[in-house]
Amino acid sequence: MNWNSWDEFWDMGGYAFFVWGSYGAVAVGMALELWLARHQRKAVLSALRLGREEAALAGELP
Amino acid sequence: MSAHLQACAALLRRDLRGAARRPGDVATPLFFFVVVSALFPLAIGPELGTLRLIGPGIVWVGALLSSILAMHRLFAADLADGSLEQLALSPTPLGLLVAAKVLAHWLLSGAPLVLVAPLIAVQFDLGFDSTLVLMLVLLLGTPVLSLIGAVGAALTLGLRGAELLLCLLVLPLYIPVLVFGAGAVQAQLGGLGAHAHVSVLLALLSAAAFLCPWAGSAALRIALE
Amino acid sequence: MFWLQYAAPHRLYALAGRIYPLAFVLAIVLTLVGLYLGFWVAPADFQQGQAYRIIFIHVPASWMSMVIYVAMAFWAWLGLAFKTRVSGMMTQALAPTGALFCFLSLWTGALWGKPMWGAWWVWDARLTSELILLFLYLGYIALTRAIDDPRRADRAGAVVALVGVVNVPIIYFSVKWWNTLHQGASVSLTKSPSMAAVMLWAMLVMTLAFWAYALGMAFYRVRQTILEREHDAVWVGELKEIAP
């Protein structure tokens, strides 16, 4: 085991800013990417549902 | 074979004559090159030692930017008047015709840079040998800029914001020419000789002359569909 | 030619739908293992202390940014050669993750460089090439976004990806030459005379984690592209996401 306490872990030998700044950026970047992709999916699905409703109203659906 | 060459020669003549009618298109990038080169000493200071250090790099960045200034217009006029489709349909391979247009572009943008280079070299106190090297590497490198730029111009043909898009696509690809072109003059200034750099530039020119007309014609066909 | 059936968009939609959850689960598992190895098993570095632990995300981000670009070029070639529609969609689906990894490579590189070499940015050959790779990614994304016609966007993007993949080694070579001429002893961010085996293992596991994540993101994203382009197709109308 490397760490005698959680405080030691978060401190990263004095390099906390750099280490957690890096890991934090990766986490934020990936979270953002995931959120944007989900958002895009919801937008596409709702646009398609809307299209389907309009087609049904216009009597185009079998 | 000679029919194809005649077609290319005709295209070349047409482009050069068109440029003669609009001398501003040729003069503007050239003036841009000269003015930008003069701005840097004003920004950095008159110390000749410093200027000699940064001179080659600045000349080359100026060459890159002025090469790319009018690049987006390479095929735009032909697209607008319908002659681009005619070129694509003609029996002459489109790659050859693209090469002819690139040659016209280079004669109007790159070649003048080579001729003006001694003036700029004097501003940066480069010395006789290094000025010769500068002219040589510009002679070898500016055609590569025109060739790569043509592929970018074909890809962005007719798009909104094509000028900026072209810059974003093409400037990273210019970097090897920049590194070896500026490096050659710096090597000469440092007394090391520029043979290796010139060889690499020759290799880049050969590769680009072979590959870019082909890639450019593929990109044109994609844009025309 | 089992794989050819997935050139059909509706088959790829279904396949991608099955793959991406598995890929994300794999990514999470590998990340937990990798971070455990990297933080609790691997010791502190003799010279760099705890700061070196950034490599467990810096190196995977760098490697994957390059692997993803090569993958994009592969799909681009496939699309141009065989005229399959889904190839262009896969190329586009891969690009954002590749660009993100490229940016993260530069960001983590800067945060590692500052405590180690005193500068936020060093013009070392690998970092500089990574920066140029980011420009290539952004150029690809900008071009494909600027073209309205999906087929033209795919094919123009494919040309850009292929031109880029040919140029990346040339650019790297040029930058390496430029770097050694101007800097003498080059600083290498990953050169370590003897890296403890467990550090290498942690790096490898994290690289696989990033790869699994990229796979998941690409397959997740390509489904939306397929839906947008095939919106008129009968199978789309019958999907339970749309017609419950």
Describe the structure in your own words.
The complex is a heterotrimer of chains A (62), B (225) and C (244). Chain A is mainly α and 62 residues long. Chain A has helices at residues 6-11, 16-57. The model of chain A has no long low-confidence stretch (mean pLDDT 88). Chain B has 225 residues and is an all-alpha fold. Chain B has one domain (2-224). Chain B has nine helices and no strands. Chain B is elongated and about 55 Å long. The relative contact order of chain B is 0.15. Chain C has 244 residues and is mainly α. Chain C contains seven helices and no strands. Chain C is globular, with a radius of gyration of 20 Å. Chain C starts with 8 loop residues before the first helix and ends in a 7-residue tail after the last helix. Chains A and C meet through helix 2 of A and helix 1, helix 2, helix 3 and helix 6 of C.
From the structure above, extract its key features:
heterotrimer; A: 62 residues; mainly alpha; 77% helix; B: 225 residues; 0% strand
Summary of the model, kept short:
The complex is a heterotrimer of chains A (62), B (225) and C (244). Chain A has helices at residues 6-11, 16-57.
Show the helix and strand layout.
The complex is a heterotrimer of chains A (62), B (225) and C (244).
Chain A: H1 6-11, H2 16-57
Chain B: H1 2-21, H2 23-44, H3 48-69, H4 76-80, H5 83-89, H6 94-123, H7 128-155, H8 162-189, H9 195-224
Helix pairs in contact in B: 1-6, 2-3, 2-6, 3-6, 3-7, 3-8, 6-7, 6-9, 7-8, 7-9, 8-9
Chain C: H1 9-41, H2 55-82, H3 85-117, H4 125-146, H5 150-183, H6 197-229, H7 234-237
What is the typical, i.e. mean, pLDDT of chain A? 88
Category by helix and strand content of chain A:
mainly alpha
Rounded mean pLDDT of chain C is 88
Per DSSP E runs of 2 or more residues, the count of β-strands of chain C stands at: 0
Q: What string gives the helices and strands of chain A in order?
A: HH
- The CA-CA distance between the termini of chain A, in Å, is 66 Å
Oligomer state equals heterotrimer
DSSP E strands of chain A, number: 0
Largest sheet of chain A: none
Task: Output the number of helix runs of chain C.
Answer: 7
| Helical percentage of chain C | over 70%
As a whole number of angstroms, the C-alpha radius of gyration of chain A is 24 Å
Shape descriptor of chain A reads rod-shaped
Strand content of chain C: under 5%
Terminal CA distance of chain C reads 34 Å
- The radius of gyration of chain C is 20 Å
Give helix % range of chain A: over 70%
**How would you characterize the largest beta sheet of chain C?**
none
